[in-house]
Write a structure and sequence with these properties.
With 482 residues, the chain is α/β, with parallel strands linked by helices. Helices cover 35% and strands 24% of the residues. The protein contains 15 helices and 14 strands. Strands 1, 2, 3, 4, 5, 6, 7, 8, 9, 10 and 11 form an eleven-stranded mixed beta sheet that branches. Strands 13-12-14 form a three-stranded mixed beta sheet, with helices on one face. Helix 12 links the parallel strand 12 and strand 13. 51% of the residues are buried. The N terminus is likely disordered. The structure holds zinc ion (ZN). Zinc ion (ZN) binds next to helix 10.
Length: 482
Amino acid sequence: MTSMLSFPRRALAFGAGAALLCWFALGQPAPAWQAAPALEVAGVPADVVRTVEGLRERALASPMAYELVEGLTTEVGPRLAGSPGEQRAISWAEQRLRALRFEAVRVEPFTIPFWERVSEKVSIIAPAPQDLVATALGGSGSTPEGGLEAEVVRFTSLEGLRAASRAQVAGKIVFIDEPTTRTQDGSGYGAGVAKRSLCAPVTQALGGVACLIRSVGTHSHRFAHQGGNARARNGAVLPAAAISPPDADQLSRLTARGPVRVRIAIKTESRDGVASGNVIAEVRGRERPDEIVLIGAHLDSWDQGTGALDDGAGVAIVTAAAKLIADLPRRPRRTIRVVLFGAEETGIHGAIAYAARHKDQLANHIVAAESDFGARKVFRFQTRFGPSALPAARAIQRLLAPLGIGPGDNNAFGGPDVTPLREAGVPVVNLAQNGWDYFDFHHTPNDTLDKIDKEELAQNVAAYVVFAYLAAEMDWDFRKAG
Ligand SMILES: [Zn+2]
């Protein structure tokens, strides 16, 4: 923590408000503002600032979010989209939200194309027989009974595969051996998603028989990372699997020495029209209940771990933040709507169902945000607002600053499940978390409760409570263009 005493003399001359802006302009860490009384924020009444400060302190002291994620991961566990586990998660969430006395608690059902792994085995047959740690990718087809066996052709990127000739790939197992870059903001994930999604269809188009990828992950542990994979356009689905990073290293060293034969045996099941649902709860606004501030997360997970980071943490963060606001003596003007989306991992099905069902109300969605990047501290506040709404973004950021949250750009993504809303013109924000180790655990058996730090989780709740309360209480129009 930095004390006020170390504040630059030059900045002090401008008074507290301007000094705060200078501090961030200088790129310094946030000082301990909590102690400073009566922070003045342009356009925000003093009583609103006091309410925000109280909410922020209560959030930092509250164990509620940890209790929620502990409950979800313990009492439900894995919850693959469309599975009995997801159905139990939906019931669990509905019961918890009712017990917390939210309003308008409901499940909005929809159906999805269901897919699950039944079994997978990936083995090097020659020249050095051994089993590899692998997991079938979402959407993968099955191999013939007994598996398929072929020579491996290695590429170091998806672009390399795309540039390959049919003669290089036909009849072979493609191996895309592309590492994932570790970053704070998760920007290394995009290339990984492209590789994971497109390996099978590109391989199929070139006449290959199956696809293996180096796991989209930043750790060297011997876990394979799950994830979705696109179906080929003609409806046929090639077998596709991710192998753990050390197994990718092994396969890479062997292919450098000469021809390598691999056997892949994958069994998967899929069927259409399987039930999923979004679980919704509200804190109804006191003046304009039809205007909605949406904070969301997704309830489903992949099936190997218990989905603590992805996305039990997000479920806990947005629920706890909304509950703190519900417990205020006076509600904010607008409604805060918590949406716990179903079936995100297999294709944002819940997000698409929500946007379709509420299409006539999207103009009343004031702003939306999803927490879906683990449980590390929020470090940056990004927006996607109309240009004339940027003073509101600055005001919110100033009240987030005591949590160590700096200003970000106006190009926010919002989160996977708010994508259809963003595309429909709803303003979005990102309370961007530190994702430095997120892809160590993401979509692996190792995504479990012990990875969550209680204090960092509480900082996330504090960030959401500040943002959601201000967006619901203030008269801001985040679409404002001029
Ligand atoms: Zn997620």
